[in-house]
Amino acid sequence: MRAKFDRQLDLLNSELIEMGDMCVNAISSVVMGLFETDVAVGDKLTDFENQINHKEREIEGLCMRLLLQQQPVARDLRAISSALKMISDMERIGDQAFDIAEILGVIGDERIKGAEHISEMAKAAIKMVTDSVQSFVNKDIDLVKKVISYDDVVDELFVNVKKELIKTITENPEKGEICLDFLMIAKYFERIGDHATNIAQWVEYSITGKHMDNMGNVEE
User: Fold this and answer.
1) 70 by DSSP, 3-state: which?
2) Which of 5, 55, 162, 212 is the most buried (most CB within 10 A)?
């Protein structure tokens, strides 16, 4: 019985990795649309969003079967409940990548100064999402802490983007609307970083039984 349960836990890990890869691919497609003016990015993101939503339902079903058909011990319960929390954040990451694609569809091929920092934000967000899922699979608490601390990098980049956009608006008031669009894109990348942090915090809970909320409070 335990051997079967362990195989299903391995399957859960594989499914989480696959969903994480989908999120990374969605973000990467958005980056291509941002810097290579990919006119098909909206269609691609629609496909990714549908795939991510479908994968979320599959993992939810697997978790329910693990809870109802097996007899998980406390450590297993933490892993399963953490997985359920993680896929919720992954689904939101997919939604926000799609939201960015929608903005790109509106602004077309117009670009402004500050995009380089948005590119750095995107790369940092991809790293955070990838590492947060990998930390769950490997039960790597050190990687968890790196992901959580890396959120400061994304936040700092967002501040840099905001400053550059404010300067652009000041110098070129006619660019106010496009600057606000890019500010929203940067904000979505910041939120993706926040969701990756949430994932890492739930990984920490699955390993230690303690959960650090966004206010720095420990929940057990």
Assistant:
1) coil
2) 55
Q: What is the DSSP string of 208-220?
A: HS-EE-TTS-EE-
pTM: 0.87
Is 203 within 8 Å of 193 (Cβ atoms)? Answer: no
Torsion of CA 69, 81, 13, 91, to 10 degrees: 120
Q: Around 161, how many Cα atoms within 13 Å sit in the side-chain half-sphere? A: 27
3-state secondary structure of 174: helix
- Which residues form the domain of 99? 2-219
CA atoms of 198 and 41, how far apart (whole Å) = 27
**Domain count of the fold of the chain:** 1
CATH code of the domain in which 183 resides: 1.20.58.220
User: Coil, helix or strand for 114?
Assistant: coil
* 111: helix, strand or coil: coil
Residues in the chain: 220
CA gap 74, 53 in Å, rounded? 28
